[in-house]
Design a protein that fits this description.
The chain has one domain (about 35-190): Arc Repressor Mutant, subunit A (Orthogonal Bundle), CATH 1.10.10. Helices cover about 40% and strands about 15% of the residues. It contains six helices and seven strands.
Amino acid sequence: MLYYNLAYAKRTCSVKRIEHTGEPMGQDPNNEFPKAGHNHRTCVDDALRKAEDLCALRGARLTKLRRRVFELVWSSHAPVGAYELLRRLGQERGGVAPPTVYRALDFLREHGLIHRIERLNAFVGCGRPDRDHAGQFLICSGCGAAAEVDDPRVDAAIERRAGEMGFAVRHKTIEIEGLCPPCRHHDQERGHAQ
């Protein structure tokens, strides 16, 4: 995993999946995070609809518990840990056994509906569960938000270089730590940004 510590700040923000469109790099990064007025309910509803459709297509059962775990992961664009999911489910349903939640998370990961942020030992929803891809994440050290970057050029470069070295890649997760646009702006206002 790659980690870059850029700067620190405290401020809340949300996150959106960033998909590389083939456009040259260097576009305004503010366009890649939700703007004020982001309708998160629509975001969650769209993700749930995609999950239901994919599970039906694959003959996989999105049980009530799996669906609820999925909704809780998507309840924020920030990554959420298994123990936080357990706490929330416990408040809703009474006692929930940890293995039950871990099995639901495993199912959701197996079907590409969520990703695990290794560094945080937490989970975040996947905006493109309909296709197989490696996780590339920008993680804000200020507010904890995580944006998924989907750039096939990054995957290709890693595969190429690993192949040149005779290395067989089994799993790829790239996690880059820094500041999201709102936290970066807040940090600059305080005079701490580089």
